[in-house]
Structures are given as structure tokens and as C-alpha cells.
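S1.2 Input.
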Amino acid sequence: MSIKEYILDLAKKTKGKIILPESFDLRVLKAASMLVKNSVAYVVLPTDNVQEVKKNAHNVGLDLSGVEIIKIDNSFLDENKIKEFVDARIKKGISEQEALELLKKPLYFSMMYLKSGKCDACVGGAVYDTADVLRASLHTVGTSTGIKLISSYFLMIPPSNHLMVKEPVIFADCAVNPDPNALGLKDIVIATVGNFRKLFPGKQAKVAMLSFSTKGSANSKLLMKVIEATELLKAHFAGQFDVNIDGELQFDASVVSSIGKRKAPDSIVAGNANILIFPDLNSGNIGYKIAERFGGFQALGPIIQGLSLPVSDLSRGSNAEDIYLTAAIMLLR
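S1.3 Output.
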């Protein structure tokens, strides 16, 4: 069974429901059709104009039978959740009417639909940018208890003919935090390991804390946060035998066995990493796009970590299959 089949099979067992706020985008309509046709999930498409969505799908030969297309209306939402949202916005200097108008926007409506318990996950970002998705999710869904830092991960699926990588790897954080400190990197890793466990139960997480140096091969203050975060994480996961963490490691030492053995011979992670943690957003965003465009990897995400409910922020370069598979991932518990 391929990784894609594995993810879809797990998602089908949840019998979950996804809301896709960007019903005006043909990639999203195609993904919605695929999700329902293949019995992966129930799908809700919110819109200001139901007939226009149906017409757009018909014009490109898409079958949306079985997809629930709803006209945006606050009557679908939990009244108590609406009140909480409005009260919070008023405290920020927004009028009640302005707050209610926000809920008429597809992204805010979808997040509040999720918050109201009407579905299991929200998948957006094919058109909306990351700032839009994060702002809407923080204003509606909110953060998980005890979470200080929102972050994200990409599930990177290698092409079947890749010469080196045969199984998926996770990249984090490639979309949210510009320059996390050591404690921020710690939070990112803890959240990422949690999602790795959901995706691959029983499999050992091997986390590489990436840098331009391996085990002191360079000397720079830029390395200190990576080294400090590594030590904090080793203490945090002490005794948890399904997690190994090492750093600082260069990319090649993390994923190439021969180089890992030469540069970090005592490391379990070196040469075998399946979770790659980037030190900042520059390196993370560049890294995943190089892997995607030059390496042929399929990049699923960014999937937001740290919110109280499942929300995904898609890359605006996503195709219909990316959206389809990301929606399936969002249903995994």
C-alpha cells in the first residue's frame, strides 16, 4: 500500500466532514468531488451563490452530487459561538455589525462552522494567503490549551522513482514563524512529533535539528538556538523510546547514511531522519519548495499546529490532488 492509499484508508474510517471555504476555485471543486466520489469524507462548500458554484462545476464537467453546497448564513452557526466571537471582536475595537459582517466571509464562516461542531476540519489556503488563514483561525477556532506558539508542517511525499528517499518525511516549520528562538523550536518539534505519531503510529520519530553545521563543525551565534533547543528537547522526550532527536546537523548528514556516519558516527538520527526541523522561515520555505520543484516531492500542507481544532493552510500552488490528500490528513486523529 502506498502512503497516499494509507492516508486515504485511514481517513475513510473516520467518516468525517470537511468544509472547504474556497468554493469559487476550480481546484477546490475538483478536490471536493474526489473526496465524495471516493468516500473519503463528506464535504461542505459555503458560498454566496449556490447556483454559480454548480454552474462553474458543470462548465468543466465536474460532478458535485453528494457535495453539500450551502449559502452562507449565520443560522448554520452556534449562537453562543457567534456571541463569543462578537464580544471578542468588540473588545478589539470592532463594532458588532462589523463582526457579524466578518462571519459572512467564506473563510470566517467556515472556521466558525468548524467551531460550531458542524464539521471535523477546515481546509483553506488555495487562494487565501497564510496571514488570512491564521488570522481567521485565531479569531474563531483559537489555540489549544497551553500552546504558546502556532506553527506548521508539510508532509513531503517522494516520487516513486526517487533514488534516495522511499518514505514520506516531515518538514517544519516552513510557513508560519520567521525566526523562532530555542523555546519556539522546542514547541514546533513537540507539535510535529505529535502529528507524526498520528500519521505513523508505532513508527520511530527521528528528528534532525537542521543547521549549516554538524556537531560543532562551525562556530557561530546562529547555531546556539539550535543547540539549546536540541538539549531542551532531549530532556523533554527522555524515556520516550519512539522519539530520537539530534542536532545540530547539516541536511546531508541528516538524510544521507554515508555522510551521517562520517560526520556524526554516534548519532541514531544522522542519515536516517524522517522529521527535519528548519531553524527559521527562510530556510524552511526555501527547503520545501526546492524539494517540491527540483526533487519532485509532493508537498502536502502547510498544516497548522497548535490550534484547538484541525485547520490546514494550503500552499497557493496546490493542485486538486494536494487539496484532496491534505483534507484526508486533517481527519486523522
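S1.4 Remarks. The domain at 151-293 is CATH 3.40.50.10750 (Rossmann fold).
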